[in-house]
Amino acid sequence: MASEQDVRARLQRAGQEHLLRFWAELAPEPRAALLAELALLEPEALREHCRRAAEACARPHGPPPDLAARLRPLPPERVGRASRSDPETRRRWEEEGFRQISLNKVAVLLLAGGQGTRLGVTYPKGMYRVGLPSRKTLYQLQAERIRRVEQLAGERHGTRCTVPWYVMTSEFTLGPTAEFFREHNFFHLDPANVVMFEQRLLPAVTFDGKVILERKDKVAMAPDGNGGLYCALEDHKILEDMERRGVEFVHVYCVDNILVRLADPVFIGFCVLQGADCGAKVVEKAYPEEPVGVVCQVDGVPQVVEYSEISPETAQLRASDGSLLYNAGNICNHFFTRGFLKAVTREFEPLLKPHVAVKKVPYVDEEGNLVKPLKPNGIKMEKFVFDVFRFAKLAAHGTRPSLCHWKPGPALTCPDQGLCAGTWVTSPFPTRNFAALEVLREEEFSPLKNAEPADRDSPRTARQALLTQHYRWALRAGARFLDAHGAWLPELPSLPPNGDPPAICEISPLVSYSGEGLEVYLQGREFQSPLILDEDQAREPQLQES
Fold first, then answer.
1. % pLDDT > 90, the chain
2. Sign of torsion, CA 379 380 385 387?
3. For the segment 370-381, what is each residue's pLDDT rounded down to a tens digit?
4. Distance CA 546, CA 539 (A)
């Protein structure tokens, strides 16, 4: 372990000597813990981190003055629309996705480094229950969707297949998440196929560039954003693990979307058939000022532009069909090839620019008293997972673009002999390897971010979204629902977007992944609320009678 003298010298080089100002007051054990934490901070990198944080915070906020002139929608040929495509096209996408899953080439990667602080809890968001009749957590819903998509792919192709689940946590969520999975027997997944790893932490910094002490013996640290994924992949050799398993395609998503379709065959197949190395699911913006990032082009390069960076005038622009010109809302639901992730981790990650998040950070004052600030007092620097989209323009290549590694510049022989018969070349098509798939919000996106009684993105709205979806599925499968007096409930052509469905209906992901196969259980039958269709009930002979 580094000595006090060594650590003091390192801090002096970084301009952060104040971090040891309570040294004389600490007992041996807290001293050792503080030294161990500070020894991990490289002086030059720490100095640069603090300088960049202070400078970024001091810059004027708001849209760049020339952004509107540089902005363009994504090219129509690189955007698919799941709900508006003809059935045959959608069937081809889905079949290709199932084929890749059956070949064990698809993995899912969960971004789960954040705690449920905004929900009023101290545990990881994935452990949260939104109040479903089944009392399932987000983690359980997601695990069961993995099991179901494995089953569907296996049945179609007559094989047993595995979709590995990679879970990126942080120092704050790894322990509780691992314990929760063990307590629930990994939700009947093979533990060998659930791989948890930690993202890095970065020090929180004051507005004048000084690292914050949250206790006399501890630096205030925070996860480095979901864009910390790329360093974490390299730190923990995750891509090497994927390569050993034969994984070529990775579906990356955030923990808080209750409707997320893990390893979605339609999305996987769409991206593979497009030859995309990088892809995004998007939803149509509900209204011009909706606070979601927009997937678009800036200077011909695919990017996500934050809503705060788009002027009201630009947000209001309309296309020739009357729809919003910039309407591709980002939902943190992405596709990457393993080759693209390898290129990012080894070459492009240092080019990612951190974003400033101004937060209320608890700290100790000069007298050593703990202060919980009432207004923002610190800077947390974060990278975003979608910041790598811009690297998708750097190369187009030979016959197998979705399986090739990249390098910008003149033609080079591809090192992945056997995977790619082509070469690396500078791309003449700026968005050649990026694609986006627009999906229906009511089917695939309802995030959980705010505590009750918030009007948006709360446990109530997430619960309503899932139960309303399942009610639609049941009606589509031929079910009828009765009220308490035995009268038929009306089949509403469209359900209220932010209200409860007429009847409570929850369908286990183990029974249906996206509404498929429910006719055998529901067609021509009448049910009173609540209907809870789980795997055990689906096995009952009387439920399967026509």
1. 82
2. positive
3. 999 999 999 999
4. 14
